[in-house]
Amino acid sequence: VSAGNGCGHTLLTPHSGTLSSKNYPGTYPNHTMCCWQLQAPPGTSLLLAFGDVDLEPSEHCARSSLLLADPQTGTAYGPYCRNSIPSAPLLVTNSSSVTVLFNSTSHRSGRGLLLSYATSQHPGMGGASPGMQKHSWHVPDPRLSTSFSVYCPAGCKDIHGDIWGNPSQGYRDTSVLCKAAVHAGVIADELGGQVTLSQEKGITLYESAFANGLHSKRWVRSGRVGASGFPVCCLLSPACDEVLEVVAFNASSWWHEVDALGQDRAWVVERAALSSTGHSWAADPGAEATWLELDLGTRRNVTGIITKGSSEQRDYYVTSYHVSSSRDGKNWRPYRGSSGQEDKVFEGNADSQGEVSNTFIPPIVARYIR
Length: 370
Prior knowledge:
The chain has one helix and 26 strands. 3% of the residues lie in helices and 39% in strands. It starts with a strand and ends with a strand.
């Protein structure tokens, strides 16, 4: 749990999590405080990774400070600020409960703080690459290895900057890898998890893995960013390799294209299935609000979705989207994920060629998906 007016991005789970001060990585506000209570399962201990501690320096860190306390043993760590930083990027505690306290008074500079944590028995610990520290989820320098493993804490997707911001130890790329793993559907941001990657001919590949109830495909990490959206997609059932049959497609509109030679091309909704060859469905380019609707014929348990762009003479794809569901086709419920606070924004494709899967945690029970 967290409390106070100085809390930034926060996602805390029993096995891992990420937390930051308000406005991070921008300058943190004056006269704020935040208290985070980290609680791991009994019998485990917490490991804290200091991604960034940049608080304006002052004597004894009196002006702004980060303080950690172990209530079970009475041990305190800190206070920390810019002139009194942690001696190591990883703190191994002997406790399953840690209190993290951040406070600020008047100041002029400082990014604030970024921390992530996991437990001593987090999933995938036994699959760590050779050379990884015991009780560590840092990834070795990718430049020195063709295959490596990384444990991504929950909440890493929405962090700006590095999860572990210590480039001298080769960890600078870690947050990018974790964000891409979430994007690929290999892990869920709400849970975190172990990710294994390999470097082949200058590209990074995520090995297929069964995680969060969905079997992912080998997925190539890409740095490209797209702007327009023309998708084909399919929905997945709890049997991870089963694609649910779509009885009918419906859409807000479709694009009737007339090219420079006067030839017609109909980007109709029937072309929205992932198995379609040639061009896909596309909404009318002049439409303000667009949606694609899939009718499963009866109420089904939907655990994920796969999307792909349209590469037929075009380089079109969807970069992000919302999902809504309905049991009767009239009353629609936006998907909000396990947090339940805001409508979830799914990361879509980074090019028109690859398939990208996203998981629904919890699953959607509905007949219609929009």
